[in-house]
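Appendix B. One record, verbatim.
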Amino acid sequence: MTAMRKLFFLLFGMWFLCFATGASAADDSVIYSRGDSATTVGTGATKAETYDLAQQLNDPALVGMQVKAVRVTFPFANGLSEARVWLSRELPAIKSQRMQAPDIASKEFTPKRGYTEVVFDEPYTLTEEGLCVGYSFKLDASTSARKPVVCTRQASTGGFFLHSTQVYRTAWHDMTVELNDLAIQVVLAGNDVHQHAAGVSNIKEIEGRTGRATSTTFDIVNHGTQGVRSFDYTYEIAGQTGSKHVNLSPALPGIFGRSATVNLQLPAVAEKGSYPVVVTITKVNNEANQDLAPSGQGVAILYHTLPTHRAVLEEYTGTWCGYCPRGFVGLEEMNRLHPTDFIGISYHNRDPMEIMPSGQFPSDVSGFPAAFIDRNVSTDAFSGSAASKTFGIKTVWKNACSVTAPAEVDIQTEWTSDSILRATSLVTFPVDRDECPYEVGFILLSDGLTGTGSNWAQANYYSGETGWPTSMKQFTSGSSSIAGLTFNFVIVARSSKAGIEGSLSAPVVADVPQTFDYSFDIREAVNTAGQLVVQDKSNLSVVVLLIEKATGRIVNANKVRCGQSTIDGIGQPTQTVGIRSMRYFDLQGRPVSELRQGIFIKSETLEDGSVRTRKVKF
């Protein structure tokens, strides 16, 4: 960006902020606006087109107030024409790729750089149904490459809808999915405008665990002329209440709709269930809150078992593949950043670590390198969905982990002989289910594989390249073939291509683990040439996969070093609080009334409401 362009956007942003204070509104008016920082966007069309832009006004605090005028802003005026502001109860219909006439009001104006205030002939009174406020204009072909739309740096529900005659032709497009709110201001008047008033919105839904404190967020929304410098609030969940004083920095300006996100800490709840979370703003700027609707409500869903989703990154590679080093680095970096929860699996092809032909891969691989998250999302093992030289796989992986898993997955392993490794999966669902559309599968991984000879040397097409992160230095500063590498995360054996039929059963009993045993004989862990792949037993790990039968997707997983367990103290008492009740189940999850010799699942409900399960032997 040139110095002149930087100066323009700096001055534009400063001017935008000054205008956004609402100081120029009449004494009996108040400004509604969702954001205070400006950026410009365009649809990317290269031809002349007409823009239709809208924002929804659905804040209950606005009901009964009157819309007097609308302020719209442009970063330039040259090449703009046929501009008008409008009001409609709903987004106007799109027919023949054109927006139909709004059903309340429409008024033409002449576009100019900066803000233009357009006053309606008659004010419109807001109802509980809400309102769509918008503006339209035509962009000439000569200026079509410029970005004519100004939006804020904040995204909220209903904040920006767009239709255009070249790009978004057939329907309205919700731009807050990829951008932010539309920079538009509404001039309001009414008898119920207060100085110190604020409401609550967007209490984020909580999925938490019983017996543990939880946290969420909510938005405080200014509804007063004095803005919000500080506020007091109360909360309530499951009969427990609390309060807190918050100083906002920066403060919210005296503009309707400006909001700030606040963290909310909630106390532990003993019993599982769905609980309303009520937040009430009691004071604004140390004055009693004058808002007519000072409360907001969310929900907390609490479980005894709260699954942790550990997304699986499966990489397809080979030492002959010169573009595969980025996957080598991607898995190493992810394991360094997330050593507890990251699960990487490396499938080799046409080298000494190949244990299956490509036709037996669990995903459809048409070329190398390739990678998939949870056998569901095709990605790049280094860049993810970002630019090629950006380490973006961490974002793709985190997004996958944010999806709620249907069950918690644990694993216990033990050597039953020098060559036989037994793995036991424990799958615990948080709720009862009549069906169980899942199966488990097991994968044996090895770290530390290395060898000599040309087929162990990694081909490298990144030699001498620049612009890569330092994590790629081994390859960017190396030769076109790199010998002596140590390969980790390599699959050396598996139970099956997908899940094991019958490994889980229905009905599912909440909080009671279903177990399944599978044994690996490391003498059978050989490559496609019949040579043993395992080099050191101490470098082996087992991954257990929870697989959706209908789709083949991995929905959760866990990993452990061989001879260890992901459950601390299996078979050993570790309680530090009192036990409320105790039950025993067999390995199929069925209640057991009389104990006998064998292995069982012991389920203990503790005094704090949490549930602990472990495997015991009698």
